[in-house]
Amino acid sequence: QPPCRILPSSFPSVYFNINLKPMSETESKYHIYFEKAKAKWEEVIVGDVLDVEGDQTNTDWYFGLMGKNITGPSTVDDITIGYKIHAIDGPNNILGRSGPLRFRTGKKFRDMNQEHIPISGIMEFDTADVDDFIEKGLFESIVLHEMGHVLGFGTMWPTFLNGCGSFTCENSIGACSDPICSTYSVGSNGGVCHASRKFNELNTTEELYLENGGGEGTACPHWSER
After folding, report:
1. If you count DSSP H runs as helices and E runs as strands, how many of each does the chain have, helices first?
2. C-alpha–C-alpha distance, residues 67 and 162, integer Å
3. Which residue of 42, 138, 167, 209 has the smallest Cβ count within 10 Å?
4. At what angle do helices 127-135 and 139-151 cross, to 10 degrees?
5. Helices 139-151 & 31-44, crossing angle to 10 degrees?
6. CB burial class (10 A; 0-12, 13-18, 19+) of residue 195?
7. Distance between CA atoms of 157 and 152, rounded to whole angstroms?
């Protein structure tokens, strides 16, 4: 087992940093779940990325999805996630939504192989469903999972960016009925994904697959659990 990396309580810029911005509708009792997810992802992601100059004059930083007149930070190190828990449509309907919104673009980031890495995103949940999941002991893992999507897991995977794996899988949910499209190892260009390479280092003889069932929102943006 590799040694643990001792992390400071406040990360310097050499670490990957997640900045959380709770919206006013969110009761303080929910903050701990987002803070725990943030701490876990900051422990898992060991590499840093270039900071980005924010836009304090932009009063639509989250494209209106978190409310009106929300300005951006002066500097993004390394991603800013807005979140809120509020009433949406009652229990057992829409749980919420999450995903990245703004991304690193331009030559500076392209030269560092960091283009398209998110700089902002949102997480939104229905109060009625959240309280039920908290009672069942599930909400902590749900927030961790959804924060991964904001960071780009499943939403900005290399399959879409450089043809690794299946390009059609990322663009057509219908194509995911074909098991071939769910393989995450070899693309049309013959390249092997970094994820598959690491997966093979575990001395497994199995292939790494993307989920190819469950419909939109489930198929393709998740690892297969088969």
Report:
1. 7, 6
2. 34
3. 138
4. 120
5. 50
6. middle
7. 7
CA distance 61 to 69: 8
Helix (H) / strand (E) element for 198: namely: helix 194-200
Burial label for 49, CB within 10 Å (0-12, 13-18, 19+), is: buried
Per the confidence metrics, is the pTM higher than 0.70?
A: yes
Tokens linked to 27 = 């009761």
Asked if residue 154 lies in contact with residue 182, where contact means CB atoms within 8 angstroms, the answer is no
Q: Which two tokens stand for residue 108?
A: 């500076």
Tokens 């999507």 correspond to 149
How far out from the chain centre does Cα 204 lie? 26
Q: Which amino acid is at 91?
A: P
Tens digit of each residue's pLDDT, the chain (226 residues): 333 333 444 445 568 999 999 998 899 999 999 999 999 999 999 889 999 988 777 778 899 888 888 888 889 999 999 999 988 887 777 788 899 999 998 888 888 878 888 999 999 999 989 999 999 999 999 999 999 999 988 887 655 444 444 434 443 344 444 444 445 554 444 444 667 777 778 877 777 777 766 666 676 777 777 6
CA nearest neighbour of 52 among 27, 16, 76: 76
Q: In 3-state terms, what secondary structure has residue 148?
A: helix
